[in-house]
Specification:
363 residues, alpha/beta, Rossmann fold, Helicase, Ruva Protein, domain 3, 3 domains, two-stranded antiparallel ribbon
């Protein structure tokens, strides 16, 4: 079971907070963002982001279950850690479980633990993730990937705070706060009978929706600046300057992979810069309309264009099709469409199903 331990991050004691004071929203006070780890920050001062953080201010000190939604790469795990840090459970464990990475046959053991001899290979008893999180917070990432047969067991823990280990009849009590996250539309999954409606309503006590990066492009300059500093320190390289032309270039792109994709692009651009100018012309993939030509001033003043939901979905579908075609049908691995888009392969597969995009096998 050693491989399963890599699926979980345990943070027992928060480090000294790293703070970023965002500019005030209207007449409200600036919001300081505390992180569980000094290696992470919530960076940005856009209205869209600040509206989310004002909700975090309200719900973090409570015991309410939180469901974080948003596209892949928008920072859902970081927000979950933020909720934990601001709660009275902050000095207790924060346990992350990636529901999409656990093999179906060990789901129950991974969540609730098992007794010695419960199955072949169970040479000793093992606590599950809920027991490990007792008194703290458990973060169920990619919760939409839970098998239907596990959803009823999870519902019982949420409702009654009780469970049994695999191979053990003893009922155990647990006190945890549950934060879940998904990039799927769980309401649609409920209608398709792939997700239990009672579990959905139990998780959806306090929903938080993280906006995609394309909806908060004013946050791109501080995000890029922060990423350049971190990457330069990581690789022991000089920090290339971020020019106004670089910012306009980055803001023109739609960022289907969101902040994670921005970080990857910045890392490639810094490595290619060799201490000179930031090589975004090489590092940024030409997907979604980004080109390597310099932008004219008129091209950078189109932030007032508003797309309908249908137009946004059409654009996303076209982008997915373009990425799959460019990679000749390859989804996984190096050179695959998931890598090109900067998202997890399972996330891409879910989106392809949602848009009913058929993928021919890679040649």
């Amino acid at each position: 079971m050693n491989a399963a331990s890599s699926l979980v991050d345990i943070i027992d004691t928060p480090c000294k907070p790293d703070r970023f004071a965002a500019p005030p929203l209207s007449k409200s006070r600036p919001v300081d963002i505390d992180c569980v780890s000094s290696s992470c920050r919530i960076v940005g001062g856009s209205r869209a982001l600040r509206q989310v953080l004002l909700q975090v201010d309200a719900v973090a000190p409570t015991e309410a279950t939180v469901l974080i939604t948003g596209e892949s790469g928008t920072g859902k795990e970081l927000l979950a850690k933020e909720l934990h840090t601001r709660s009275h459970r902050s000095r207790r464990p924060f346990i992350k479980v990636n529901c999409s990475a656990i093999p179906r046959e060990i789901f129950e053991s991974e969540f609730f633990g098992h007794a010695q001899g419960a199955f072949t290979g169970a040479v000793r008893e093992r606590p599950g993730r809920f027991q490990t999180a007792d008194g703290g917070t458990i973060f169920l990432d990619e919760v939409g990937e839970l098998p239907v047969e596990m959803q009823a067991k999870l519902l019982r823990v949420l409702q009654e705070g009780e469970y049994e280990r695999v191979g053990d009849d003893r009922t155990r009590k647990v006190d945890v706060r549950v934060i879940a996250a998904t990039n799927q539309n769980l309401a649609e999954e409920v209608r398709a009978h792939r997700f239990r409606h009672d579990l959905f309503y139990r998780l959806n006590v306090f929903p938080l929706e993280l906006p995609p990066l394309r909806a908060r492009k004013e946050d791109i300059p501080p995000l890029a600046t922060y990423a350049i500093a971190r990457v330069s320190t990581k690789h022991r390289m000089p920090s290339p300057p971020l020019t106004a032309q670089d910012i306009a270039y980055l803001q023109r792109y739609d960022w289907p992979g969101n902040i994670r994709e921005l970080q990857n692009v910045i890392e490639r651009a810094v490595i290619l810069s060799r201490g000179a100018r930031l090589r975004l012309d090489i590092a940024l993939p030409r997907v979604g309309g980004a080109t390597s030509e310099p932008l004219s001033p008129s091209a950078t003043r189109r932030d007032d264009v508003v797309l309908t939901d249908r137009e946004c979905r059409d654009r996303e579908r076209q982008n997915l099709v373009r990425a799959v075609e460019r990679c000749e049908g390859r989804i996984y691995g190096r050179g695959g469409a998931a890598e090109l888009l900067g998202i997890n392969p399972t996330t891409l597969a879910s989106r392809l199903r949602a848009f009913k995009i058929a993928v021919a096998k890679a040649r």
